[in-house]
Amino acid sequence: MSNIIYLPQRQMATPKQEPWPKRVHRQRKRADRLDRLIEGAIYVAGVMLAALSWWALTVAAFVFGG
To answer: Which domain covers residue 46, as residue numbers?
Structure first.
């Protein structure tokens, strides 16, 4: 009788443990995607800032330079 009760607990314990690495992997994938998105946004913002400052310097040179 105790063997009959023990086996279903053992069978139920394995499927609960199996999706856990997948969930961790999915969370890690989501975090990696978010990191790449943030890095891309920082890169784009830096390029835009560099272009804007270059444009501002060019305009200032024409306006104040003569």
So the answer is: 18-65
In a domain, 25, yes or no: yes
44-58 b/e (C-beta count within 10 Å ≥ 16 → b): eeeeeeeeeeeeeee
4 part of a folded domain: no
Q: Supply the pLDDT for residue 16.
A: 52
48, 51, 57, 62: CA torsion to nearest 10: -130
Residue 62: other Cβ atoms inside 10 A: 9
Task: Tell me the per-residue pLDDT of 10-63, one tens digit each, with 9 for 90 and over.
Answer: 555 555 555 667 777 888 888 899 999 999 999 999 999 999 999 999 999 999
pTM of the model as a whole? 0.52
Quote the number of domains for the chain. 1
